[in-house]
Design goal:
The chain has 353 residues and is α+β, with helices and mostly antiparallel strands. It is built from 13 helices and 8 strands. Strands 1-4-5-8 form a 4-stranded mixed β-sheet, with helices on one face. Strands 2-3-7-6 form a 4-stranded antiparallel β-sheet, with no helix packed on it. Strand 2 and strand 3 form a beta hairpin. Helix 9 packs antiparallel against helix 12 and helix 11 crosses helix 13. The structure holds flavin-adenine dinucleotide. The site of flavin-adenine dinucleotide has 22 residues, from strand 1, strand 3 and helix 13.
Length: 353
């Protein structure tokens, strides 16, 4: 998988064997990019193509039917796929929370029984991580006879209509975070409102409102103290979405100093610990914006036309400034974009109309 832009150096041999199939999918994604940009929903065939390569089980051990990729291997694959279609890659990577939950031996066996179908992507997963957000609870899980009741909202859930199962986190009793698996389908008390996105609109991203949605007790994955939450593995891999946008710009531009900037940014993400991951993520997002703008300048007035690759990549880069953000990422980006390099407070409210 080694190439001019180096994503995929030092990969294990079985990962390198993915290469041909992966490149075919990246090429198909790129060919479809304009059409998908205008579509209401991603073509199911994009997700099926990922399933055929075994990529829904990317992180599952080979003994469980997965590809046995390490998290590092996965980031290279995410970068390459995101350079073809950000939306399809975006929806696909939401699956890994569900996969990781089912691989966890602490998860009840009845839920783990879904593992074979989740590894193949026959059952596809999405996430509503609203219960992990700091501050006042936005979604509450209350114990009721036989299960749980959900009240509140999950402002962002991508892949609605494309996924089968939704891993929902909510605030539970006694300062706990409760994780439940729901069918991603209509439920009494659930209101689904489609968001209209400036890019990746085909990701079918929705706002969910829960008014007393009941969930069977057998769908409980875990209830853990809010304080004891593990660090998020997704923080690193979400950075590869931005690298994918940079990568596509580099491929369209031909050799420029952006190639080296991409390698440097990737290395920063790969070597970052908990403390400097926000800065590395912010740098990747800022580089995606810079690369898309460099491409627009290089393409000249064509970039003003709706559907031009530079026009689309610019909108995609803008979304990656805010998707999967955390206070440290936001603060670093505010500093980066401030004319005097000063940081506004990370607590600056984020507004949703
Ligand atoms: C296009 C798009 C699609 C999205 N799809 C999904 C999705 O499918 N599922 C989903 O769960 N979210 C999804 N999100 C939400 C996203 O992951 C973040 O919550 C959001 O980007 C942070 O936005 P914000 O800065 O407005 O803060 P808010 O969302 O208003 O969050 C408030 C605070 O909580 C922090 N925060 C947010 N999420 C977490 C977390 N998991 N752990 C710790 N702190 C957190 C934020 O940094 C911020 O400081 C999506 C967002 C966008 C823009």
């Amino acid at each position: 998988m080694s190439d001019r832009l180096d994503a995929g150096s030092n990969l294990a041999p079985h990962v390198v064997r993915l290469d041909d199939g992966l490149q075919t999918v990246v090429d198909r994604f790129w060919r479809d990019a304009g059409e998908v940009d205008e579509a209401d929903v991603l073509p199911a065939s994009h997700l099926e193509a990922l399933g055929r390569l075994g990529l829904y089980g990317a992180l599952a051990p080979r003994s469980q039917g997965g590809l046995g990729l390490t998290p590092h291997d996965l980031t290279s694959v995410v970068e390459r796929l995101a350079s073809g279609s950000l939306g399809s890659t975006f929806v696909w990577i939401q699956h890994f929370r569900l996969l990781r939950s089912l691989l966890d031996p602490a998860t009840p066996a009845t839920l783990r029984a879904w593992l074979p179908d989740v590894v193949t992507g026959t059952l596809k997963g999405g996430i509503a991580l609203v219960g992990l957000m700091p501050g006042p609870p936005r979604l509450m899980a209350t114990r009721i006879a036989g299960g749980w009741r959900l009240d509140g909202a999950a402002p962002w859930v991508s892949g609605w209509g494309l996924i089968n199962l939704l891993l929902v986190t909510a605030r539970g009793p006694h300062d706990t975070t409760v994780s439940l698996i729901l069918d991603a389908a209509p439920h009494p008390g659930l209101t689904v409102d489609r968001a209209r996105l400036s890019a990746m609109n085909a990701s079918a991203t929705v706002h969910l409102r829960f008014d007393g949605v009941t969930v069977d007790g057998g769908r409980l994955v875990s209830a853990v103290p809010v304080e004891g939450r593990p660090e998020e593995a997704d923080l690193r891999s979400n950075g590869s979405l931005a690298l994918g946008v940079v990568r596509r710009c580099c491929l369209l531009l031909g050799p420029t100093p952006l190639d080296q900037a991409l390698r440097h940014c990737r290395e920063q993400l790969d070597t970052a610990g908990v403390d400097n991951m926000p800065a590395a993520r912010a740098a990747a997002s800022a580089l995606a914006v810079q690369a898309a703008h460099a491409l627009a300048v290089a393409r000249g007035s064509r970039a003003a036309l709706v559907g031009d690759p530079a026009e689309r990549l610019t909108r995609e880069a803008a979304i990656l400034l805010v998707f999967g953000s955390r206070p440290g990422i936001k603060r670093t980006l505010q500093q980066h974009f401030a004319p005097d390099g000063s940081a506004a407070s990370a607590d600056t409210p984020s507004f949703r109309a």
